[in-house]
Every structure is written in C-alpha cells, then in structure tokens.
Amino acid sequence: MLPSRTPLVVSYAFLLCIPLFCLFPPKFLTLKLAQIDPPCFKRSAISRPGTTNPKPKIAFLFLTNSNLSFAPLWELFFQGNSHLYNIYVHADPTSSFVSPGGIFANRSIPAIHTKRASPTLIAAERRLLAAALADDPLNLYFALLSQHCIPLHSFRFLYRTLFTETVRFPYRSFIEILSGEPNLEERYVARGETAMLPEVPFEQFRVGSQFFVLTRRHAMMVVKEKRLWRKFNQPCFNRHTCYPEEHYFPTFLSMEDPLGCTHYTLTRVNWTGNLDGHPHLYGPDEVSPELIYELRISNSTYSFMFARKFSVDSLEPLIQIAKPVIFSD
What we know:
It contains eleven helices and nine strands. The protein is an alpha/beta fold. The longest helix is centred in the N-terminal third of the chain and has 22 residues, at about 1-25. About 35% of the residues are buried.
C-alpha cells in the first residue's frame, strides 16, 4: 500500500513547500526582479534570507523628478547607521536626474514618467514599495520622501520612535486618513460620478498626505492590491480636483485595516498660502533653529520626523544647524 501512496505524498509535500518558497526563496531573486509594474508585483512578497543582522531596518523611498539637492544633509542623517536602513530612489526618467553618489549610489530603481494629478505617482510609489520588499526582509518600515524633504530629528531618534518606543504591536502605519474634508466630493467625482462604484462608495473615500511610513504588512498589501488600483488608475476629467496619490493609500488602508493605522503622518507640510495646490516653500532666510523646533510640534502622539518643502538654496543654512540643532534631539 505504501508505494501506491507515494505520488500523493510527494505532491502533498510539494504543495506544502510552496508557501515556504515564497518566504525563503533562492538568493538569485534580487532587487532587480522587484522593480517592475504589475503583474509581477507578486514577486515583491518574496524576500532574501541569509543575513546575519537581526535588527529591523527602515526603507527610505525617495520619489523625485529632479536632483536630490539635500543629499549632503541626508548623508549626515544616515551617518553611522548603515546596518539599520536601506535607500531606494525612483527618479523620473524624463528628468535630468543625476545621482549624488555616496549613500545614494546604485540605489535607483527602473522608473516611469510621473505626472502630477495622475495615477502615475501611485504607480511609482508601488514600484518603490515592491523594490524595497523584495530587496531585504529586514525592511519593516517604509518611509516615502521627496527631493524637497528634510529630516527634523536624528536617525537614532526616528529609529527608537518606530521600534523601541512603539507601544502597540504589531506595528502600525503612520499614514494620514481623513474624511469629511472640504472638496472631498469634488475629488470623488473627478473621474465621473459613478466611476469609483461599486468598489469605493463615497462614504469610504478618504484623503491624506501623500507621504507616509508604512509597515511591511501594509506595504505587501498595497503592492498585491488590484481591485482599488483599477479604479484609481482611471484618468480624471479635471486635474484641479484630481490628486490620486492623496486618496489611494488612505482609502485602501482605511477600508482594509483602519485600526492598523495611526491616521496621521510623520511629515510636516505647511499649507498656509499654498499656490496652485503646492505647499509653502521654505527659503534660506527662513531656516533657523526656531523653525526646526516649530516644525517638530505635532498634535498627535509623536512629533513630526520630516518636513517639506524646502528650496534648493536652503541646503547651506540647514547644514550649519544640522549637528547642533536638527540631530541634537
């Protein structure tokens, strides 16, 4: 009887091994395989084993359409912590982006052209998440940043906040999720009055900051997701009411796991006096220790960790106060 059952046993054993292969694949499944659009996003759930470093890492995802002018400031931020972070850069291929080298060398992923008020920004962010998921299984938080972002605290302060001082477990995502905001209805019908139905009724439509810090679990949910992506990937009729990148992530995570999110962001943005949908741009004359202290202040549990937007010529005054102020928590 035993020999006759052998094929069934082998087949059953093979089926049991499939989930293990997804969790512990061969090492040849590297970063390059994850830097692609759907339908290959499922590969991003496969991550490499074999590391001797047990500490969790933060994946920093830079989404840019110009040079990373604040690279020297970020170099100071990351200094001495190479075992606790990874960097990934999505640079619009139609821009004149030049890698600043250093910690950003060889960290760019294959990119697509991105355009404001279009789903291309969502697609680019999903690419970044997929790349970071597949690259390192120790990436447990995924922080989305732009070329205009700066740190407001030291790396160690951020790391302790995310991993050491977190009260709730499993970890929660830091993403702004708002409802009942002005112009929300106009944004909802930007693709047509019924375009989002039945998957996204207006009562479940949310808005929030484009910049987030997601947990690994939520990052995997996002890159695997197809149902809502098909809706948000539709073109808008009015670009002035269409900002998909501010709706897709808050709406999806609010629908799937609202208790797993803080409902606030860690990135400070000043919308006072915004122009054509752009926030206030801080110039070099505004940079001071007082500004940094002010930008850190938050109404939520934690202080803000990042801020935007800063002009390119703000770099020098920021460097001058980096060690005595920004990184002196």
